[in-house]
Structure formats: structure tokens, C-alpha cells
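Long-time lurker, first post. I've been practising inverse folding by hand and with some scripts of my own, and I keep getting stuck on stretches where the C-alpha cells seem ambiguous. Below is the full C-alpha cell string for one chain I'm working on. Before anyone asks, I'm not after the true native sequence, just a reasonable design that respects the backbone. If someone could post their per-position residues I'd love to compare against what I wrote down in my notebook.
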């Protein structure tokens, strides 16, 4: 099952998008369902992490340095580079750059030759960091795009990022539960991400169908932006070992697009949500491209 999911992860997400066009809108229950699904993804992902300090200290400083550059400095640079051309794209891509590494990034990175332990640390550090950075940094440059206060955003991130960490700790004591969750993480992540994507497409179906003329420009823009993020992650670790470079590149480009769409649905404008939905398609296409490009680079290096 895990092998099938890892091989067809992108296609399953694409299927959930088309399914979202067919199912009815969950209505007022959608935000609660999305929060529960996000909680479940993060909760399950923490079982990948080895809490023993001795196994992590060699990579921790590398992960912290990477996260500070990639998730604090780079988003600000992106905003000021794009703001002369489009306030909408500047803030949208600034917000997307603040989003942490995706829960699948350590697994995908490992599959293409990355350093798994470093990838896990980047995932954990970046996810904890956003509980501070997004509520503080997003409103600063939001202009008219952010429609809720920083405290509400902070509270949501606490519930979906920090709380799952503390809730998962007692369950680590159960060898059977720990083993099951760790072994079947891809299944949990795929089911939850597909449900999130399906719900969000369903909620925004009228806007999506009425703005089909935006589909190709949005898809191209987000694909190019994700390609830039992959390259940025590669360059941040440029002088490191090749597995570390791959981990940095994958963590940077393979961000938690599901979280971005969910937060956008809850707090940002519908137009940004539409851009991020097309970003999900671009995310899948970039993942497919990544699995083909990295092995070619490894063979030639």
C-alpha cells in the first residue's frame, strides 16, 4: 500500500481535485473538518521524529540556519522583488514562502537521495517556527489581503502544529501504536490531504469554474515559483554534501501546500485561495518533475 501511494501520490491529489468539482460544499462544517485533518497530518508526522538528542544534534544547527534563511529572509526578499509588479502576487508568494516544509518532504527527499534525519529536523523546526512567523509577518505586508487578526491565526497554528506534538507524546509509549503510525504515515497523509483538497475545491467550485481563464497563468506562475524555491533550497546548502543539498532543495520546494490552501480558505481572500489551488496542481507537477530530474543529476555528478 505504501509503495503504491508513494508512486501515485501526485495522481491521487489530482483525482481529489476533480472529485471536489462533483461533491457538494460541506458548508459551515468545512473549516472544522479542515482543522481536524491538518491536526491528524501533523500528529501522525511527529512519529517520524527521533526525540533522542544524540541522534539529532549534528544536524540541528544546519536545520536551524537553513530555516532562518529559507523561511524568514527569503520570503521578505521575494515580496520586495515582486511588489513593484503586482501587490497580489507579491503577497501571495510571500505568504506561500512562509509556509513550512511539507509532511511528505522527508520521505520524498529520502527517495531521491536526501539526508532523512536532516529533512526531518527541517520539517519540525520550520513547522514550529511558523506559529510565530506567520502571525507576525503575514499581517505586516498583507495590505487588504488578510481579513483576520494575528491572534486568530496564531491560535489556529497552535491547534494544528504545536498541540499535535504534545498530544502525540503519550502515544509514543505504545509500541504497537507507534509502529502502526510510523509505518502507515503515507496512507494517513494522502487520505487527509486528498480530503482537504477535495473540500477546498468543492467550496470554491463556483469561483474556479467562473475563472477558467486564470487557470493557465496561475498554473504557470506557481510552477515557476516552486521551481525557484527548489533552486533556493539547493543554493542555501550549496557547499554541503550532496544528500544535504537534496534535503534542502526538497524541503524548500515541497512545502505544505495543503496548509497554505487551508489557511488561505480560513483567513485570506478567495482569489489567493484560487491561486493556491492551482498551486496544488503545480506542486504535483513539480513533484513529478523532481523525481525525474534528481536521478539524472546524481548520475551525472
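-- Answer (accepted) --
I ran through it position by position. Result:
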Amino acid at each position: 500500500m505504501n509503495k503504491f501511494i508513494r508512486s501515485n501520490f501526485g495522481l491521487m491529489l489530482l483525482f481529489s481535485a476533480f472529485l471536489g468539482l462533483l461533491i457538494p460544499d460541506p458548508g459551515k462544517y468545512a473549516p472544522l473538518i479542515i482543522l481536524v485533518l491538518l491536526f491528524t497530518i501533523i500528529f501522525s508526522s511527529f512519529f517520524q521524529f527521533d526525540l533522542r538528542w544524540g541522534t539529532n544534534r549534528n544536524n540541528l544547527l544546519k536545520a536551524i540556519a537553513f530555516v532562518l534563511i529559507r523561511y524568514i529572509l527569503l520570503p521578505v526578499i521575494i515580496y520586495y522583488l515582486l511588489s513593484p509588479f503586482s501587490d497580489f502576487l507579491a503577497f501571495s508568494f510571500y505568504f506561500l514562502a512562509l509556509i513550512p516544509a511539507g509532511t511528505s518532504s522527508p520521505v520524498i527527499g529520502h527517495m531521491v537521495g536526501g539526508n532523512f534525519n536532516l529533512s526531518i529536523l527541517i520539517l519540525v523546526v520550520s513547522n514550529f517556527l511558523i506559529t510565530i512567523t506567520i502571525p507576525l509577518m503575514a499581517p505586516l505586508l498583507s495590505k487588504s489581503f488578510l481579513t483576520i487578526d494575528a491572534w486568530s491565526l496564531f491560535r489556529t497554528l497552535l491547534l494544528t502544529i504545536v498541540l499535535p506534538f504534545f498530544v502525540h507524546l503519550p502515544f509514543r509509549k505504545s509500541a504497537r501504536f507507534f509502529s502502526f503510525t510510523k509505518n502507515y504515515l503515507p496512507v494517513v497523509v494522502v487520505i487527509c490531504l486528498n480530503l482537504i483538497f477535495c473540500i477546498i475545491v468543492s467550496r470554491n467550485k463556483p469561483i474556479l469554474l467562473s475563472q477558467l481563464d486564470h487557470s493557465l497563468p496561475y498554473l504557470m506562475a506557481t510552477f515557476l515559483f516552486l521551481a525557484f524555491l527548489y533552486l533556493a533550497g539547493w543554493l542555501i546548502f550549496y557547499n554541503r554534501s550532496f544528500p544535504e543539498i537534496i534535503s534542502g532543495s526538497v524541503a524548500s520546494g515541497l512545502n505544505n501546500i495543503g496548509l497554505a490552501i487551508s489557511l488561505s480558505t480560513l483567513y485570506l481572500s478567495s482569489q489567493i485561495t484560487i491561486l493556491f489551488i492551482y498551486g496544488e496542481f503545480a506542486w504535483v507537477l513539480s513533484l513529478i518533475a523532481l523525481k525525474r530530474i534528481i536521478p539524472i543529476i546524481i548520475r551525472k555528478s
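A couple of notes from the structure itself: The two ends are 33 Å apart (CA to CA). The chain has a mean pLDDT of 81. Happy to go over any region you disagree with.
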